[in-house]
């Protein structure tokens, strides 16, 4: 699809000169002769690049109002400002408002075309980066053979094709956004936008502005997340952080399927599927009075619970192998030989969950250690975990031999059971022990396994 340039100037001669110049350069154009025409063209379809005269028919600086309007819709769109009444103050004002370039009339056509070419290169580069980031995120898979991950994969297959609202519970870094994106990718709305509103990162006074948008006195419109995600999916991350007053307004939107922008006078119909996430125990937040129970039931049509990584130890070797291959490809390295059964990895609590594990693997890739001992040292230092053998040895000095042996056996067998997701048959096969003998040993040590 060829690049499209929107030309806004109330002088027909200048408008036509720029139009001919742009078309000869191989670009498509759209034209607007006044403020209202320009507003309609912008709202109808955003251009790739805009060229705007500062003074149109509405006021002295209405071109700057259009610049602001474009930037509220997409801050990445390059806007070239032209004027016949240039001064330093005007130039500074335009650049501060986000103008890509500022050029005076009468302008040199070659110079203007250079600005346009640079603007096109700029937006193409940003689009490529955005596409790369999306592909990078989409390239990550939901890895694991734990029962929790198997259940989530089945849930994604079933609920993606529906329009039901979804509530994803899980600790920070566990993969809640990845699950939401997998649902989006498999849904009927995959060609629509995927918009993220992070409740934990917003200024408390800006929640409603970010959700509903705003109509300004000068006629400019700031679009909120609900409108931006029309025909797509809106992910409200850490929804429990949203203030109670705003929660009541979200409930009203879900009930009425419409809303008004801040300072707006007419209703905007809602066509969006909502997915919410929370790293807090939402039921406890309801009991504390921090979250509306009626809103929770509206949002929680279907619930997905992802467990912390420390409860899914069997997934760790698979994740280490997966992220190692990813890192090797990204950093153009030979295969990274990380021991997936490293005790430091299996016994660590992983407070940062999968995100922390992925960061650790990337750290190893960047440092590029050339021996397994160096890799182990990086893991040990990064996780700040005491040497298991030294700790066991130190603790053993203060207890009788029988108790020390039982403690070691209990720690060892518990780790192996976790690794095989509680499966006694697989654990027995791995450690070279008869299944019946392992049953007796586990019973004697008070360890429960799954079969």
The residue fraction in helices comes out at 40-55%
- Biggest sheet features: 5 strands, parallel
Question: Quick one: CATH class of the largest domain?
Answer: Alpha Beta
- Class of secondary structure makeup: alpha/beta
For the largest sheet, list the strands in their spatial order.
2-1-3-4-5
- CATH topology tier name of the largest domain: Rossmann fold
Question: In terms of per-residue confidence, which ranges show pLDDT below 50 for 5 or more consecutive residues?
Answer: 385-398
Number of DSSP E strands: 14
Compute the gyration radius: what is it?
A: 29 Å
Q: In the residues, how many domains can be counted? A: 4
The general outline is: elongated
Portion in beta strands: 5-15%
CATH architecture assignment of the largest domain: 3-Layer(aba) Sandwich
- Euclidean distance between termini CA atoms: 57 Å
CATH superfamily of the largest domain: P-loop containing nucleotide triphosphate hydrolases
Description:
With about 450 residues, the chain is of the alpha/beta class. It folds into four domains: about 5-130, Response regulator (Rossmann fold), CATH 3.40.50.2300; about 140-305, Rossmann fold (3-Layer(aba) Sandwich); about 310-385, Helicase, Ruva Protein, domain 3; about 390-445, Arc Repressor Mutant, subunit A, CATH 1.10.10. Helix content is about 50%, strand content about 10%. The chain has 20 helices and 14 strands. Strands 2-1-3-4-5 form a five-stranded parallel beta sheet, with helices on both faces. Helix 2 packs parallel to helix 3 (about 60-75) and helix 13 (about 315-330) crosses helix 15 (about 355-365). The two termini are about 55 Å apart.
């Amino acid at each position: 699809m060829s690049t499209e340039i929107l030309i806004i100037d109330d002088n027909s001669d200048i408008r036509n000169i720029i139009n001919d110049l742009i078309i000869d350069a191989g670009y498509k154009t759209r034209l607007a002769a006044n403020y209202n025409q320009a507003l309609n063209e912008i709202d109808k379809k955003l251009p790739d690049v805009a060229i705007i005269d500062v003074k149109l028919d509405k006021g002295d600086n209405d071109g700057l109002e259009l610049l602001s309007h474009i930037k509220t819709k997409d801050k990445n769109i390059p806007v070239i400002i032209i004027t016949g009444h240039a001064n330093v103050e005007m130039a500074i004002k335009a650049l501060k408002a986000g103008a890509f370039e500022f050029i005076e009339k009468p302008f040199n056509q070659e110079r203007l075309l250079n600005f346009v070419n640079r603007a096109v290169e700029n937006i193409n580069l940003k689009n490529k980066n955005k596409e790369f980031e999306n592909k990078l995120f989409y390239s990550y898979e939901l890895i694991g053979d734990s029962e929790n991950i198997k259940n989530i994969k089945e849930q994604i297959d079933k609920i993606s094709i529906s329009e039901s609202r979804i509530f994803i519970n899980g600790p920070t870094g566990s993969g809640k956004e990845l699950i939401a994106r997998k649902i989006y990718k498999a849904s009927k709305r995959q060609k629509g936008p995927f918009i993220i509103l992070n409740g934990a990162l917003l200024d408390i006074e800006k929640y409603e502005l970010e959700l509903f948008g705003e109509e300004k006195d000068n006629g400019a419109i700031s679009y909120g997340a609900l409108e931006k995600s029309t025909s797509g999916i809106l992910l409200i991350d850490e929804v429990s952080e949203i203030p109670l007053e705003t929660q009541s307004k979200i409930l009203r939107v879900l009930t009425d399927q419409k809303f008004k922008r801040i300072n707006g006078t007419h209703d905007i119909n809602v066509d969006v599927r909502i997915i919410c996430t929370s790293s807090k125990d939402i039921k406890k937040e309801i009991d504390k009075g921090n979250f509306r129970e009626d809103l929770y039931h509206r949002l929680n049509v279907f619930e997905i619970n992802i467990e912390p990584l420390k409860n899914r130890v069997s997934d760790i070797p698979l994740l280490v192998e997966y992220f190692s291959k990813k890192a090797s490809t990204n950093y153009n390295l030979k295969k990274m030989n990380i021991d997936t059964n490293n005790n430091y990895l299996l016994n660590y609590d992983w407070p940062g969950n999968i995100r922390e594990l992925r960061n650790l693997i990337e750290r190893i890739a960047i440092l590029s250690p050339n021996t397994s001992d160096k890799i182990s040292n990086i893991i040990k230092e990064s996780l700040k975990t005491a040497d298991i053998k030294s700790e066991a040895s130190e603790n053993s000095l203060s207890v009788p031999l029988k108790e020390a042996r039982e403690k070691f056996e209990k720690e060892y067998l518990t780790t192996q059971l976790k690794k095989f997701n509680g499966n006694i048959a697989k654990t027995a096969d791995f450690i070279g022990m008869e299944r019946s003998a392992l049953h007796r040993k586990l019973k004697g040590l008070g360890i429960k396994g799954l079969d």
